[in-house]
Amino acid sequence: MSLLRYNGITVCRNPAIPQKNSYFFPLTSYFNMKIGLFIPCYVDALYPQVGVSTYKLLRSLGVEVEYPEKQTCCGQPMGNAGFERMSAPLAEKYDDLFRGYDYVVAPSASCAAYVRYFHPDQLHGVKPDHDCLAAQKTVDLVEFLHDILKVDHLPSRFPHKVSVHNSCHGVRELGLSSPSERNIPKFNKIIDLLKLVDGIEVVEPERPDECCGFGGMFSVEETAVSAKMGYDKLRRHIATGAEYVTGPDSSCLMHMWGVAQKEGQDIKFIHVAEILAAGL
Questions:
Q1: CB-based burial of residue 84 (10 Å sphere; 0-12 exposed, 13-18 middle, 19+ buried)?
Q2: Is residue 154 part of a domain?
Q3: Cβ contact 43:71 at 8 Å
Q4: Domain containing 46: what range?
Q5: 72-91 mean pLDDT
Q6: What is the pLDDT of residue 125?
Q7: How far apart, in whole angstroms, are the C-alpha atoms of residue 157 and residue 160?
Q8: What confidence score (pLDDT) does residue 215 get?
Q9: Residue 61: partners with Cβ closer than 8 Å, 6 or more residues away
Q10: Predicted pLDDT at 83
Q11: Which end of the chain has fewer CB atoms at under 10 Å, N or C?
C-alpha cells in the first residue's frame, strides 16, 4: 500500500474493492479530486449550520467542493415507509446530479447509508441497464475524513466535555464504530476524529450503541416506544456529565433534544461537523 502526504493528510492510494463496513475507496490524486456536497433535506431546513460547517471543514483540508443547487431529498423517508417506487425518481435524480464527482460527501450517516445500499436496487427496478455510479461514491463525512483523507490533525478547538452518540446506521451499515453484538476489537472513528480537536474531553454513555428511538417513521408510528427509548438514551448521556451530545446524524440529535426540552434537561446537542470545524 503506497501513501502520500498532502496538506498534512496521509492519503491511501491502494485501490481495493469496497466491502460493507470496511471501505478502502480507490482514489485519484488529491490535487484534482472533486467532491459533491450532499446536504439532506432535514439538515437544509432545520440545521443549515451543519452543512456550512461541513463545507468549511472540507475546504480547510484542501478539498475542492461543489454544492449542486438542484439536489433534493434522497428518498429515504418514502423508502423507509414502504413506498420505494415513489422514491425511485429521487434516486435517479441523485445519480444524474452526482455521478460525475469523485466522491459525494454527506453530513448524515443515515442518508449516506440509504443512498449506498438502496439506490442501486431502486434504479435497477426502473432502469435495468442504468449504472448507479453515485451511490458507490457516497460517503458520510466521518468516513471521508477518517478512511479516505485519513486526517491526522485539525486546527479546531472545542473546550467542552462531549458525549458521543453512535447512530444505528453509522454503526451497523457504515461501520463508524464497532457494534457491541459482534466479537471484534472495539473502535470508533467519530472518537478518533474528535480527539484531534484541541481542548475537548470525549466520553461515551453506558450501552454506547443502543438506539435513541428516533428511527424516522418509527417515531411517528410508535410514539410511546420511541419517546421511552429517547428518554433512556438521554439519561445515559446525562450520566456522563457531558455538556454536549454529538454524533453524525442530526435526526438522532433532534430526537434527543426534543426529549431533553420536554424533561427540562440542561444539555446541548451539536453535530460532529460543527465541532470538527469549530474556529474555522
A1: middle
A2: no
A3: no
A4: 3-148
A5: 87
A6: 75
A7: 9
A8: 66
A9: 7, 9, 145, 149, 151
A10: 84
A11: N
- Residue 268: burial class (beta carbons within 10 Å; 0-12, 13-18, 19+): middle
Domain boundary among 123, 148, 173: 148
Q: And the C-alpha cell for 99?
A: 455521478
Rg for the chain, CA atoms, rounded: 18
- Over residues 104-162, the pLDDT tens digits come to 999 999 999 999 999 998 888 777 777 889 999 999 999 999 999 999 999 999 999 99
Q: Are 144 and 185 in the same domain?
A: no
Amino acid at 50: V
- CA 195 – CA 162 distance, rounded (Å): 11
The pairing of strands 201-203 and 161-164 is parallel
pLDDT-derived band at 26, boundaries 50, 70, 90 = very low
Q: Count of alpha carbons within 13 Å of 239, Cβ hemisphere only? A: 11
67 falls within a domain: yes
Using DSSP bridges, classify how beta strands 201-203 and 244-247 pair: parallel, antiparallel or unpaired. unpaired
Number of independent structural domains in the chain: 2
Query: What residues contact 148, with CB distance under 8 A and at least 6 apart?
Result: 12, 25, 27, 103, 139
Residue 239's closest CA among 161, 187, 168?
161
Domain boundary (125, 148, 171) is at 148
CA distance 83 to 69: 26
Do 132 and 248 have their domain in common? no
How long a stretch of residues is the chain?
280
Q: Give the DSSP letter of residue 278.
A: T
The residues, any chain, with a CB within 8 Å of residue 159's CB and separated by 6 or more, are 198, 199, 200
